Amino acid sequence: MNKQVLKVEKRISADPVRLFRAWLNVEDFSRWFLSGEMIGIDSVAMDPRPGGKFLINMTLDGKILPHEGEYITIDEPRKIVFTWRSHATENKDTLVTVTFSEVKASSTSNGLNEKPQTLVTLVHEELENDIQIKMHSQGWTNILEGLNYWMS
Q1: In which residue ranges of the chain is pLDDT below 70?
Q2: Which CDD domains does the record match to this protein (predicted)?
């Protein structure tokens, strides 16, 4: 079976360092990492270092849905790579890469620089079918929207 790749991007008004750190700080992460309106966060545990593991217990309709993985690369402030396993991947490891690329600010007409902008690109590999692509596309899009909202 051909593995599939999902790519989601979001331009966010924040500098790359702040965005990068929001992915690795438990308290901050718990505030913005929501994949949909009906989804909540029960608990988050993370050991943000290569080889370190994380566990995100999401809630839906009173059920706890564990999402877990292992950090592979942590390259501040450019890139985080981790495995991702959940009910939505049929409990198989997949691979997620999140990159943070600074978008050069332009000067406004009054000569002041605009707020820093960062393009956050999330690539999710090793997905097995269209259902997994659709579920994760919606989830990751909502998560990046949550990050954007939290940063504003």
Answers
A1: 1, 105-113
A2: SRPBCC_CalC_Aha1-like
User: What distance lies between CA 22 and its chain's CA centroid?
Assistant: 10
Strands, DSSP E only, in the chain?
4-12, 40-46, 53-60, 63-75, 79-84, 94-103, 117-127
- Give the Cα separation of 101 and 121 in Å (integer): 8
**Which amino acid belongs to residue 122?**
L
Q: Where are the chain's structural domains? A: 4-151
Q: What is the pLDDT of residue 128?
A: 95
- The residue assigned the tokens 């409990």 is 91
Task: Provide the residue type at 18 as one letter.
Answer: R
As a CATH number, domain 4-151 is 3.30.530.20
3-state helix, strand, coil in the chain (%, to 5): 25, 45, 30
d(CA 52, CA 24): 11
